[in-house]
Amino acid sequence: MFQPDLEKMPRPELEALQTKRLKRMVERIYSLVPFYRRKLDAAGIKPQDILGMEDLLKLPFTRKSDLREQYPFRMFAVEQEEVARIHGSSGTSGKPTVVGYTRKDIQRWAELCARSIVMAGGRPGDVFHNAYGYGLFTGGLGLHYGAERLGATVVPVSGGNRSRQVTLIQDFLPRGIGGTPSFILSLAEMMEDMGLKPWTTSLEYGIFGAEPWSEEMRQTLEEKWGIDALDIYGLSEVIGPGVAMECREAKDGLHIAEDHFLPEVIHPQTGEPLPDGEYGELVFTSLTKEALPILRYRTGDITALHREVCRCGRTHTRMSRIKGRIDDMLIIRGVNVFPSELEAVLLNFEELAPHYQLVVTREKSIDQLTLEVEVSEAWFRSIESSFGQGNERVVQLCKRLQSVVKDTLYVTTKVILKEPKSLPRSEGKAVRVIDQR
Ligand code: DLL
């Protein structure tokens, strides 16, 4: 463990620390951020009303739209001279959401990312191949500082240029790798194309996140690379990667860094808290962030919380693998579908490769879902000469896939089987849904 005294802190002690930090944080934002002072005044709450954790529920939510409206720096609680760095996330609508860090914030964030790397099995002296994008995106620099803080040797390769990445992995002998699961999958494919065997590299563990992925994708990545593949979660509005991380011992939910962030799961429509174990929208309150403290931030991500102590000995609450974002949930003729649930279904077909895309169209005011998925190289070779939508084996496979999707997800899809390597490969976060409505 990187910080055992904090990661294994007994719950009563942890809750006392959280309460103390929450009170201080509400006082700070009330006096330093006019946006929050207005919100708290409107809700009739004074900082001194916050006496314990139960009072958290009285506090107002913050939404992504609030950050957009306060663009670029009006949510900051420090003067610009104290801001050491800016990051951001490019949403769908033009302007990015801007977040800021003081030097202290960057130090704490580096500690959280170091914790995450250790949870995956990393140690000082490792070579860490960092294939997360560098730039405004928090993935690259976040894990970079974390790996350095741990005492690892970082290879800041960023995303893209897959053949160079393969060369660097072969030459620098990294133990650890970080990147989006879709990109790391495409890297394995590149190695296979070059006649190399990804499972024979020096890699032992992978830290994968920034996009939803499934348990089946974990298996695929673990087999292809011969590594432990662990899930890392975070979002720029809260800090970036390192908000939560799976441990190698259990691979059963992600430990939330609760000494810095308070998690809640609420009903996305009513905003009411949901009991542990129930899926809903994840909400975070930062407890220690200086430049951009955030109160009850609605992440839009769907998960459930679990508070039992983990096999690894950490006491911090775990969250289930993210099912998806509320905005990415497809509602097809009244049925809710997350792309990651479809991924889980199709990775069980040995005739298919884990490269897929969902196209949503509207025909005569009815939504249609089309699943475009590549077939595996081996299966393709077995019918190469006659591959096409009229081929009997193709028709049969489409039918089987349609029926399994219907039985497990209750949704009717059109299926189009694609030749190997015909769908675009991810350079960072994969685009799974193409909405043409
Ligand atoms: O994606 C931070 C990050 C970088 C996390 C590297 C992990 C690794 P944003 O660009 O602000 O930050 O996007 C945040 O990405 O609200 C989720 O919807 C999604 N996301 C992040 N991690 C996971 C994950 C980074 N492990 C948004 N599983 C979040 C599923 C994830 N979705």
In terms of topology, how is this protein built?
Blueprint: H1 4-7, H2 11-32, H3 34-42, H4 64-69, E1 85-89, E2 97-101, H5 103-119, E3 127-130, H6 138-150, E4 153-155, H7 162-172, E5 176-179, H8 181-193, E6 205-209, H9 215-225, E7 228-235, E8 240-246, E9 254-256, E10 261-266, E11 280-286, E12 297-303, E13 305-306, E14 318-319, E15 324-325, E16 330-332, E17 335-337, H10 339-346, E18 352-363, E19 366-375, H11 377-383, H12 392-409, E20 413-418, E21 433-435
Parallel strand pairs: 3-4, 3-5, 5-6, 6-7, 18-21, 19-20
Antiparallel strand pairs: 1-2, 7-8, 8-9, 9-14, 10-11, 11-12, 12-15, 13-14, 16-17, 18-19
Helix pairs in contact: 2-3, 5-6, 7-8, 8-9, 10-12
Bound molecules: 5'-O-[hydroxy(phenylacetyl)phosphoryl]adenosine (DLL).
